[in-house]
Amino acid sequence: MAGPSFADHDGWIWMDGEFIEWRDAKAHILTHALHYGSSVFEGERSYDGVIFKSKEHSDRLVHSAKTLGMDVPVTSEELCEIKNAVMRKNGIQEGYIRPVMWRGSEMMGISAQANTIHVAVAAWVWPSYFDPAEKIKGIKLKMSPWRRPAENMAPVHAKAAGLYMICTLAKHEAEAEGFQDALMLDYRGYVAEATGANVFFVIDGKLHTPLPDCFLNGITRQTAIDLAHNRGIEVIERHMQPEEMANATECFVTGTAAEITPVSQIGEYSFTPGDICKTLVQDYEDLVRGRLTLGKTPSLAVDAAD
Predict the structure, then answer these.
(1) Residue 64 to residue 72: CA distance in whole angstroms
(2) Least CB-packed of 78, 181, 203, 225 within 10 Å?
(3) Which of 48, 52, 57 is CA-nearest to residue 79?
(4) How many angstroms separate the CA atoms of 166 and 195, rounded?
């Protein structure tokens, strides 16, 4: 049974320069974004009232909007200020923040040069994306038949709403079969990413992760790489064939919502969350809460043969 609607919520949403009561923040049925996917967004988390890597997310939102040809009405710096104001207005400490830009309803058709670019920011209390008990032992992913497109087929380096349609299809299929998520290959058959998270594998004590040449180089992905380097763990970014997952002993996914989440199964392949997974999960938690500063962490005491 579905839970409460996100449209029926107490609180405030910043929209086009002003705060609007949550239930009154609406767009017209003929909004271009609803029909043609002309929308970009971000997903961000706040910890103890501080939005993690807020500037990086704002920069990416502006980049995504410009990639879709939008005349962006706010700067990255203004977005950071707006997000903080939304957090304060709603009294949120531990939350999820959703900035979004979309084309309005002045023109209805493929062309949309005259359409207003709208901007909104919402925030709400947000628990763990995956059940904590499941997260500790590792989540299970189904291999999806859907594939990420090539960079000359879609704006793959923008966080564009239209690119997530196949993610919803893949995740629905996975959940219907008892999995928590799905792993997608790219158009060439290489390992790509989960539906909303990047993926890493531990092979011979080193971290291997797909090269993000046709999907987002996630902000949490970049953070995980920094944390690994901080521990003296070698990170190899490369194209990976799906059968190479048989060589991996550990696996985890990364994303703003997922944070760093161990994986116990992808299709026919099994993994056991070990020292590297557990250490990076804890390091990420310490980093987002200000208990860890990169460059001041001892090396991970794990031998490559373990």
Answers:
(1) 10
(2) 78
(3) 57
(4) 8
User: Which CATH number belongs to the domain containing residue 63 in this structure?
Assistant: 3.30.470.10
Could you give the residue numbers annotated as active site? Answer: 159
Distant-in-sequence, close-in-space partners of 191: CB < 8 Å, separation ≥ 6 = 183, 185, 199, 210, 240, 241, 242, 244, 245
Q: What's the CA dihedral at 5, 6, 8, 9 to 10 degrees?
A: 130
Amino acid occupying residue 146: W
Residue 113's closest CA among 69, 79, 154, 143?
Answer: 69
pTM for the structure as a whole: 0.94
Is residue 305 one of the residues assigned to a domain? no
Query: Do residues 41 and 146 share a domain?
Result: no
Beta strands at 117-125 and 12-15: parallel, antiparallel or unpaired: antiparallel
Q: What is the CATH number of the domain that holds 201?
A: 3.20.10.10
Q: List strand residue ranges (DSSP E) for 126-242, in order.
A: 139-148, 181-186, 191-194, 198-203, 206-210, 235-238
Per this entry, what is the length of the chain? 306
The owner of tokens 């797909």 is 210
Which tokens hold the place of 35? 């029909």
